[in-house]
Amino acid sequence: DAKTTQPTSMDCAEGRAANLPCNHSTISGNEYVYWYRQIHSQGPQYIIHGLKNNETNEMASLIITEDRKSSTLILPHATLRDTAVYYCIVRARSNDYKLSFGAGTTVTVRA
Amino acid sequence: DVKVTQSSRYLVKRTGEKVFLECVQDMDHENMFWYRQDPGLGLRLIYFSYDVKMKEKGDIPEGYSVSREKKERFSLILESASTNQTSMYLCASSPQVPYGYTFGSGTRLTVV
Q: Which chain B residue lies closest to A85 (C-alpha atoms)?
């Protein structure tokens, strides 16, 4: 699976949009982009995934560049409860099993 | 609400004990996983199973074994607990790709 690069940390103001970047320049055509988050002392939580089109659900939006080498997770109106570590992961469709977590981005939402 | 349930939130065991960590999912998922999470090392895959009675080693299987006798249940076994197995253990399940994983709340195991 392709590796990802994320900033170590970022701050966001409550009520504002949080834009979390992820670089996956070695992504191949059959690899999906997944985002998870982990709030302190809890298990990771699935947020969203995409292949090449932009995706939106009740939690977030995922914007994937046309060349698929990077993506951005958007939390439209960040709240204090969105403070967490956010993981960007790429995973091949052929690799049904393994999900490899990197260090992620520690997002702190401030009042 | 779909769930992955881990039997214990906190567990304290003695060195040399045989330890069982239980995980149950109610989503009829084919795949189940055990990870451990340690500060500075992130989540590391111990074992996974893609079907009943099937298992595959992950990145760090040494000192662990698993059992999956029923689709909904996946057990992690520490044959002889050691202090370096003190960690947060996370169970997850998923249907086939491209769907995401659902994680349990974790078991914080301390081996003394």
A: B42
Q: Does A8 touch chain B (CB under 8 A)?
A: no
Residue B105 with chain A: CB contacts under 8 Å: 42-43
**Non-local CB neighbours of B18 within 8 Å, separated by 6+ positions:** B77, B78, B79, B80, B81
Is-contact A12 A107, C-beta < 8 A?
yes
Match 């960040």 to its residue by tokens.
A78
Q: Which two tokens stand for residue A104?
A: 């992620």
| C-alpha to C-alpha distances, A59 to A17, A42, A85, A97, B52, nearest whole angstrom | 12, 18, 15, 25, 33
Classified as helix, coil or strand, B62 is coil
Per-residue confidence of chain B (112 residues) as pLDDT tens digits?
669 999 899 999 999 999 999 999 999 999 999 999 998 888 999 999 988 989 999 999 999 999 999 999 999 999 999 999 999 999 999 887 667 889 999 999 999 9
